[in-house]
Amino acid sequence: MSPTPVPTAPPFFVRARVVSPLTAGGTLDLADGLVEVDAEGRIGSAGSVADRPGGAPADAIDLRPWVVLPGMVDLHAHLPQVPNAGLGYALPLLDWLDRLTFPTERSWADPAVAERLAPAIFRAFAAAGTTTVLAYGVVYEAAMDAAFRAAEAHGIRAILGKVMMDRLTYDPTIEPSTILERTLRESRALAERWHGAADGRLGYAVTPRFAISCTAELLRESAALAADLGCWWQSHVSEDRAEIDEVARLFPDARDYVDVYDRAGALGPRSVLAHAIHLSPREEARLADTGTRVAHCPTSNLFIGAGVMPLADRLAAGLRVGLGSDVSGGAELSMFGVMRTGAYAQQALRAAASSSSHGSASPAATATTTAPAPSPAPALGPLEWLRLATLDGARALGLDDRIGSIEAGKEADLIAVDPGATAPLGPELDGAGLLDDPSLLVSRLIFRGDPSMVRAAWVRGRSLEGPS
């Protein structure tokens, strides 16, 4: 435990090990750091205690040996599915939706369910170290109102959206002839109430579920609505092979899955598409050209069995990528767990590519000179995974001028983690001096991380209920 209670509201100073990606590149690593949070909840300064005249102020909260990091940014989650986390392993995507997801979301038709569950859901995100979440809700306006009220009260930074579905829906009470008008009207009403609420801490994302559940008209109208209101727009793309085949059947005039959204006018820097596993080169280039953001959800992709996104290819193509838990497709809320699964998946992809490029050639093949296969891209290191989960997620949302790193002038969205909770033999027998290297420290937090290591979380310098 920390020797002193954590601060709950600004202004304050915290003293701790500080590790953060930097906007200009590289990593801030302060072995004995001091973060100043001003009365407005912004970072006044972040530097070494040794470099501050007079050292740490007398009222500084000493959290050592804990580590202060930027708060995690979860770029894709489903609020009503959190209670289902860990259920439905390896079910095909469309079966998983029908058997587990749609019945759960249907229960939120009673807004009392949202009122009961949403506060606990936001506490669970904070307990895992997530301070910003972009999430789907349900098709019900009243339930989404309740979810926004819970996020407002809790203090988390949240961008939420009412799910839009007009080709198929799990709400049997909606008259088919009025569903398009109704979902657009309700989405507009929610956005006008909540987009920019809590002094910009809350936001709205227009949320057509995915192409299979939406007509071309809904996709067009939803994109126009997001543009009109200055909101985000979110959906799914190319998660599963069967899904892609169904999209091709439903939209025969489109060139491919990405083109369905392109024709709707939905691509651009305020749009976030989850998954993007099975993209053609044309689709990848089009997403990059339009500045469309991608939420990479490796835990979900493996849990459902959808595939492994070639992350190195997406980054090399210039795509802006962040990380998402995709709970309950993903089995955990922790972005440290998402980083871990993502790193393992990418190592497996690299190993398979390397094995393929160095495979044994047949005698006939050796007689013909062929160009060698390209070498797999270097693996991302721990600090690069940390950047994906924090600053890159903030960049995907266009919020990197406010959050995502520990730098003066940004809002104090921070977490404190206890590295001792990850030590194999306990903190008193941890590897002597090894964790002085920030890459090794973050590696330990990723590969032996557990939500219990998160001891505190703040948004704008205010403590979030959740960590203990």
Gist?
The protein is an alpha/beta fold. It is 36% helix and 21% strand. Strands 5, 6, 7, 8, 9, 10, 11, 12 and 13 form a 9-stranded parallel β-sheet that branches.
Largest sheet descriptor: 9 strands, parallel
> Any low-confidence stretches, pLDDT <50, length ≥5?
360-370
Averaging pLDDT over every residue, what do you get?
Answer: 93
- Estimate the global geometry from the Cα principal axes: globular
Tell me the strand percentage band. Answer: 15-25%
Number of strands: 16
The CA-CA distance between the termini, in Å, is 10 Å
Structural class based on helices, strands and sheet pairing: alpha/beta
The quaternary organization reads as single chain
* Count of runs of 4 or more consecutive helical residues: 16
Gyration radius, rounded: 23 Å
Approximate helicity band: 25-40%
